[in-house]
Design goal:
- By secondary structure, this protein is α+β, with helices and mostly antiparallel strands.
- It folds into three domains: 172 residues, 7-stranded beta/alpha barrel (Alpha-Beta Barrel), CATH 3.20.110; 63 residues, no CATH class; 220 residues, Beta-galactosidase, Chain A, domain 5 (Distorted Sandwich).
- The strands form three sheets. It has an 18-stranded antiparallel sheet that branches. It has a nine-stranded mixed sheet with strand order 9-2-3-4-5-6-8-7-11. A two-stranded parallel ribbon has the order 1-10.
- Helix 1 links the parallel strand 2 and strand 3.
- Helix 8 runs antiparallel to helix 9.
- The protein starts with a strand and ends with a strand.
- About 2% of the residues have low confidence.
Length: 473
């Protein structure tokens, strides 16, 4: 039986071996652009002389359907440029996951009229013709007998031929089933959903002239494997922070610039607040009582992301022995002279969050008796290695186990990565080390809780507790 076998390569050594052993076999070979960039020159020079059809699916192996149109096109164009620079003109499209009919128009616009699509259920035995609102493409179903997926080209059965040798007769009109599994995967995975929303927000606001290094970082964060459940996404978060930083550097702005956006950032039918300063990028979700992420742009790293841990809790309260995360209503935003402020209210507490340059200030104002006994933020800090701390200028200690402290100024560091937490009133700090960083619950005992008989309630109202988090890299 005539076939167009498909081989997906994952390492330069594999491509090197294939050019030496299988160059004369008419395979359909997927070498992602990021991998071609890593090939020795002697191997790259051999590619154009092979009998292969080269599959184009996106520089960093993204799920194309999950990207904005501009990013889809950029990912494919970058691969096409590098193939053509290597003298390769026998190319076809490739979609391993997330087939959507609109992708047909995308490939046609780039001059690619044959698409290999992984077809999971009952793939046809022959190529099929697809018409998407006037854009006609030939689909080669991957995974069946027509285009089997091979790990080793030496194990193929059947007679391998070029795709064009199968296109002489009349083709059936048909299209692959739409694949939206990636949507459900992200919806069911809070960490994947957070990364996805960060990526989308950046990809939708790109300047016309993107710094090349910013493009590199953005496309790296768009790789499909980052959005699989259970993945440590620290590198992807850092890539997005790096992309934002490089874009910022390319713009002429005053030293104290800020940007505030109120929008439904995570598509949950309520507004969040996105804040940008020269040093920080963060999103406040008042309704959930969280700061969804904090990135430090000069050091191009995520400050808040720790795999398997929740984002920052704006206010964690204690009732008896049970800690509870407070939720709020967004009541106001303000932007003025290098500072961005957000105001939130909940039962018995008003919270103000202010960001400026590299600092985030949290202010808790008591407005009534909520019944809480303790109150303060629970915040996570990621570090690239072992962490040490000191309180109020005391000796440095290593964060190796949970510890409780009390004081005004609390510093964490690993090398140049530093965080300084300053409490206006003495606070209790509870440190809990986790993989990749530390979680800190900074809190105060509330004057109103359990004290109504000893202190007149009017004297309790309006009491404020303040804390500032300064981040350097």
């Amino acid at each position: 039986m005539n076939q167009v076998p498909v081989v997906l390569t994952t390492a330069p050594e594999q491509v090197d071996h294939m050019t030496a052993s299988y160059a004369r076999i008419p395979l359909a070979v997927r070498i992602p652009g990021r991998l071609i960039d890593q090939l020795p020159q002697r191997v790259t020079e051999l590619l154009a002389s092979t009998e292969w059809t080269f599959l184009v699916g996106g520089w960093s192996e993204p799920i194309l359907a999950m990207l904005p149109e501009s990013s889809r096109q950029a990912q494919l164009e970058r691969e096409l440029v590098i193939f053509r620079a290597a003298g390769i003109d026998r190319v076809a499209g490739f979609v391993a996951e997330g087939w959507d009919p609109a992708l047909a128009a995308l490939f046609v616009a780039l001059g690619v009229n044959e698409i290999f699509v992984v077809w999971h259920d009952d793939p046809p035995l022959e190529p099929v013709l697809m018409d998407y609102i006037g854009d006609v493409v030939t689909i080669f179903p991957v995974g069946g007998t027509l285009s089997p997926l091979l790990k080793n080209p030496g194990s193929l059965n059947g007679e391998p031929v070029l795709p064009t040798e199968l296109l002489g007769g009349k083709l059936e009109r048909r299209e692959p089933p739409i694949d939206r599994k990636w949507v459900n995967s992200i919806a069911d995975d809070a960490e994947g959903g957070l990364l996805y929303r960060k990526m989308l927000r950046l990809a939708h606001r790109l300047p016309e002239r993107m710094p090349p290094e910013a493009t590199e970082w953005l496309e790296s964060a768009q790789a499909g494997h980052w959005y699989k459940p259970g993945t440590d996404r620290h590198t992807a978060h850092s890539a997005l922070a790096a992309a934002r930083h490089r874009i910022d550097l390319g713009r002429r702005r005053p030293a104290d610039w800020t940007r505030l956006s109120v929008l439904d950032w995570d598509a949950d039918a309520s507004d969040e607040v996105q804040i940008e300063t020269p040093e920080l990028s963060l999103v406040v979700d008042a309704e959930e009582g969280m700061v969804l992420y904090v990135d430090h742009k000069p050091s191009e790293r995520s400050v808040s992301y720790l795999p398997g841990q929740a984002p920052w809790h704006i206010a964690q309260a204690m009732l008896g022995e049970l800690p509870q995360r407070m939720t709020f209503a967004l009541t106001g935003v303000e932007e003025d002279r290098g500072r961005v402020g957000v105001t939130m209210t909940s039962q018995g507490v008003e919270v103000g969050l202010t960001a400026s340059r590299n600092s985030i200030e949290l202010q808790y104002r008591i407005t009534g008796n909520s019944g809480w006994q303790r109150l303060g933020p629970e915040i996570s800090f990621a570090f690239s290695g072992s962490i040490r701390f000191r309180l109020d200028g005391s000796a440095w200690q290593t964060v190796g186990e949970p510890v409780a402290l009390n004081g005004h100024r609390f510093r964490l560091e690993h090398g140049s990565e530093q965080v300084l937490v300053t409490a206006l009133q003495p606070a209790d700090f509870f440190l809990r080390p986790v993989t990749g960083g530390v979680i800190v619950w900074a809190n105060w005992p509330l004057a109103l809780s359990g004290a109504a008989e000893d202190v007149p309630p009017a004297a309790q109202l309006g009491v404020e507790y303040r804390m500032t988090v300064e981040i350097t890299g």
